[in-house]
Fold:
Amino acid sequence: MYKDINKVLENIGAHFEVSFSEKFQVDRQFRYVDFISESYSFRVRAAFIQARIAEDFEVPIQQRIEEVLKTVCIEKGAMYDFSTKFVDEPLPTKYCVELVK
Structure:
C-alpha cells in the first residue's frame, strides 16, 4: 500500500482534472472513492490503488490510469469503475476499467 493514501487520491483527482478539463468532486467511501464532475464519473476501488508487487510502486498511479483508459472509449454521463480482475497469467491480477452505467 502507498505510504500516503491522501496524496495518491490528490494525484488521481488532479490527473482526472487535467485529462478531462473539468473540476471533480471527491466522495470517499471505505472501499472506493468516487471522482465526479459535471460530465464524468469514475469510481476508483481500493484494489486499483493498492500495489500488489514491489514493481507496482515504480509505476505512478497516473500511468496506471492512462494504461487502462486506453482500453475503453470514455463517454460523458457514464460511470466507470477502476478495479482489478483475476487473470490466468504469471501475475494473478490485472488492472482494468469497466463501464458501470
In short: Residues 17 and 23 are 6 Å apart (CA to CA). The longest strand covers residues 79-86. The first helix runs from residue 5 to 20. Helices lie at 5-20, 46-49, 61-69.
